[in-house]
Amino acid sequence: MEGKPARARSGRLLLAGTALALALTLALGPRPAKAEEIEMVISSSHGIQIPWVTPLSKVIVERANARLEAAGSENRINWTESYGGALYGYGDTLEAVADGVSDSGWVGSMWEESKMPYHSITFYTPFTTDNPRLQAEIFNQLHETIAALPAEWEDNNTVFLGATVADTYHLYTKFPVTSLEDLKGRKILAPGPSATWMAAAGAVPVNGALPTYYNQIETGVADGVLSIVTGAHPLKIQEVAPHVTLVGLGSNLIGGFAVNKDVWDGLPEDVQQVLRELGREYSVMNADILEERYNASIAELEADPAVTLTTLSEQERQKWSAAMPDLAGQWAAKLPEGKAVLDAYMAAAKAAGATPLREWSAD
Length: 363
Description:
The protein is α/β, with parallel strands linked by helices. It contains 13 helices and 11 strands. It has helices at 19-27, 54-70, 93-98, 132-145, 148-155, 194-200, 210-218, 229-232, 261-265, 269-303, 314-323, 327-333, 338-351, and strands at 37-43, 76-82, 104-108, 158-166, 169-173, 187-189, 204-206, 224-228, 243-246, 252-260, 308-311. Helix 6 (194-200) links the parallel strand 6 and strand 7 (204-206). The protein is globular and about 65 Å long.
């Protein structure tokens, strides 16, 4: 979402050398097909306060056994929770669940474009929808109807259970922005696919990540940043870039809650069914938290006398969208099922009530 971490692997996942990591790893092993007490580790590279981690505990862990009991099942899950990178770093979320370092957890697909290219589609279809709740619903639905999506998880020895999304992108700058002209030649932090978005507006994209944005803007490395509000606001980016322009380039799919496939295949059917249900509820809470934090952040920006909060006009948004190259077409052309996935996504977005600013599937 805010940049892909550099990795240097020697063919094996580097684990934190802690007693917890060792204990949890040794505890993993073949699960019986049916058991009253099922040991499962659930984890994340990010802390419990993050919108896609909180529901792991509040939905998956807290509701699972009550749901099993209500269904009349004698099976119970004995959860071991490990968040905040105790087992692995944020660049290794897919490998951690796939290799059995953790039985289940959050997987960040936005860092895995080479292994999960179909899950990067929203970064190549900007201006489709600003609504993260809608985006989560769309992708949970598409995972049931488009085989290429769940196949990417299974090819990586994982089973997808619920989509994770992020809020839409806006501009934080040192200068006012009322038109694309204001962005020409300006250095704007925009890592990954978002660099192309900024280049289309005439800006000069600069690489960076959330933890580096404040210092890069303060020291003059960049004149601003294109970011999600829920990421930028807690870091007080508005202090160094007080002109906040609501652009709405779109909410993005960033990953999902998944279970190691070997573990999944060994779970009783009733446990699988409960986890499927909770996977969708996980997505709902993810969207609830995002919406609450986004609205609170915007309200604080509006009330801050040091911040100038404006909205880019629809005319300028249209100009920006039209100025972009055929990002979706180029993305689709590289993948065997690219065009089919693109068409299905755009159709599902419109059917769900979204009004894309550009009809990417028709380009």
